[in-house]
Design brief:
alpha+beta; 6 helices; 24% helix; globular
Length: 245
């Protein structure tokens, strides 16, 4: 990873989050203090970074079970398009809920390796006080990258388009309105000078995941209008590169 992508200022405590949010008067200090999570045991046997992308299905599911993940196998007519038929999460991952913002069960299906990458992301999310992540879709059969013939990670339920972050006090951040610095073509993980408040929080939870190499493809509002309202996070097996846009 380039030095430029490591140039953001790391926030390492909920106290720092409170300072960032208070910079634009989003929530009171007392509410942020109340967001602190109870202590949780460390995640068990979760591989680091992109090693998650190359796990076989049996090993992946074993790790999810060891970490108390509640999920059921997807039984819909499109199940054959996802390795292992895909999973439907039936509870939080390490205290953080991942939920589809719509009503389609199909769009909530996750391949095991995506579920495990999301689980590995939760310590970062918990550090910032996030209790729920709402997404626009994970699984879209036959999905292609817009304007190309390339198959999207959504076609195999290995990608998530997240839009909203929610906190214990009810604060809700929306990528569409709260990711305010979005210069076209800029590296999303270069911290814009003077960026404060919700935009800084959204950027940091994404870029801490990039730093941890949890997702090999990341597409942000800096890329194009199609991503104005969400950030695309994708697990890509069998690659040695990353694409951060």
């Amino acid at each position: 990873m380039t030095a430029a992508r490591r140039s953001w200022v790391s926030l390492t405590s909920l106290a720092s989050l409170a300072c960032v949010l208070l910079g634009v008067g989003v929530v009171p200090a007392q509410a942020n203090q109340a967001q602190r999570f109870p202590a949780e045991p460390p995640l068990r046997d979760v591989p680091a970074g992109r090693a998650i992308a190359n796990l076989d299905d049996a090993a992946c599911r074993s790790i999810l079970r060891a970490n108390g993940t509640r999920a059921t196998i997807y039984r819909g007519e499109e199940h054959g398009r996802v390795r292992g038929s895909g999973l439907l999460l039936r509870g939080p991952l390490n205290g953080v809920r991942f939920e589809n913002a719509g009503r389609s069960e199909l769009h909530a299906v996750v391949e095991c390796r995506l579920a495990l990458a999301l689980l590995a992301w939760t310590p970062i999310l918990r550090e910032f006080g996030v209790t729920r992540v709402q997404h626009m879709s994970t699984f879209r059969p036959n999905a292609h990258v817009a304007g190309t013939s390339r198959v999207s990670g959504h076609a195999s339920a290995l990608a998530i388009d997240f839009r909203y972050l929610e906190f214990a006090d009810g604060t809700r951040l929306d990528v569409l309105t709260d990711w305010t610095s979005r210069e076209r073509g800029a590296d999303p993980c270069v911290h814009p000078e003077g960026e404060l408040g919700p935009s800084a929080v959204l950027r940091r939870v994404v870029c801490r995941a990039v730093e941890a190499d949890l997702f090999q493809v990341v597409v942000s509002p800096h890329h194009n209008d199609a991503h104005a309202n969400h950030v695309h996070l994708e697990v890509r097996p069998d690659v040695t590169w990353s694409s951060i846009q």
